[in-house]
Amino acid sequence: MKRSWTWIIPALLIATGIGLGLFAGPLDAQQKNVLVAKKVAAPPTLDGVMEDAWKSAPELEVTVRGGRNLPEGKTEVKLRSVYSGDTIYFLMQYKDATESLRRGPWVKQADGSWQKLKDPNDKGGDNNLYYEDKMAVIWNISSPAFEAKGCLSACHTGEGKPFGNKYTADAGERLDMWHWKGVRTGYTGQLDDQYTDNTRYDKEKTPNAGRKSDPKTGGGYADNVSDDKKGPKFALKGNKPAPPYWIVDSEKEALDDSKYKAGDEVPGIIVSAFTGDRGDVAVKWTYKDGVRTLEIARKLVTGSEFDVQFNDLKKQYAFGVAVFDNAQVRHAWHPGVLKLVFE
């Protein structure tokens, strides 16, 4: 989540409190970064709406910075948490002036061919024009460095990628990442449950470095592309043009080219719900008046080695937050260490 070395030094100062006048008291500074999960008798309804169940939970507001497309590169993220029975819930709200769902669709051309919309400035893995809104929460599982530095500890600039690579310092250290993707997982009602380990970047062998996905038994998303790579292979029900900008796998139809005129669009992605470990974080979201609201639910304890386990309600759990505004990698992020505690 670093930008360049000019970003790293200020971020380290923020993370450590140097030069920021935090000497009014370390405890006060820490409390500002603490999210309290309140115990409730009845859980909230997972519908992307902030109803009464949330109003008793204290709110934590943090600013995320450095993101492409956001005004001045930043937005404020408001967080709440409650738990009931064997499940913990999170409410997240932030301003985003534009809802971005037009992720790389195919467009029919005047000559009858198809062209996939691409960001002309994307030199590889850096689409900031025809992408999707995303959000990520990353939890520490077993990284001492994350406890002290948060996201800075696992994000590494350069190494052949815009915005760098993600990996932990040593073998056995893992982070749990919950990744909401407005198009690829938005319909399924799930976050993409992923993790980070210490795998270093290698362009040929390990291009994703330490970032990996939890195991799955089925489902997921795939590009909608014909065998000859010259156009879409499948269509929405009835061969209707987009929107929406995703095709549900169980409803896909073979593309009938005769149904489309020049300028019509076909989704570039096919989606279905994850089954297995990768699909155990539920979410519902809404977008209204420039504000995105997400309600997230997960079992306190999943038993997966790739997940953070909220099995000790007296413990503090370190985490970080990032917001992507129609950006593949250039996200806004909070440079400090946030902590979850249970009431």
Concise structural overview:
Helices cover 8% and strands 33% of the residues.
Task: Give the topology, please.
Elements: H1 5-16, H2 26-32, E1 34-39, H3 52-55, E2 60-64, E3 75-84, E4 87-95, E5 106-108, E6 114-116, E7 134-140, H4 144-149, E8 155-156, E9 165-166, E10 175-181, E11 192-196, E12 211-213, E13 218-223, E14 234-235, E15 247-248, E16 253-254, E17 265-266, E18 269-275, E19 282-288, E20 291-299, E21 317-324, E22 332-333, E23 338-342
Parallel strand pairs: 1-3, 1-23, 15-18
Antiparallel strand pairs: 2-3, 3-4, 4-20, 5-6, 5-17, 7-10, 7-21, 8-9, 10-11, 11-12, 13-18, 14-16, 19-20, 21-22, 21-23
Please characterize this protein's 3D structure.
The protein has 343 residues and is mainly β. 8% of the residues lie in helices and 33% in strands. The chain has helices at 5-16, 26-32, 52-55, 144-149, and strands spanning 34-39, 60-64, 75-84, 87-95, 106-108, 114-116, 134-140, 155-156, 165-166, 175-181, 192-196, 211-213, 218-223, 234-235, 247-248, 253-254, 265-266, 269-275, 282-288, 291-299, 317-324, 332-333, 338-342. The strands form 5 sheets. Strands 1, 2, 3, 4, 7, 10, 11, 12, 19, 20, 21, 22 and 23 form a 13-stranded mixed β-sheet that branches. A 3-stranded antiparallel β-sheet has the order 6-5-17, with no helix packed on it. Strands 13-18-15 form a 3-stranded mixed β-sheet, with no helix packed on it. A hairpin with a 5-residue loop joins strand 5 (106-108) and strand 6 (114-116). The longest helix has 12 residues, at 5-16. The model is unreliable at 1-30 (pLDDT under 50).
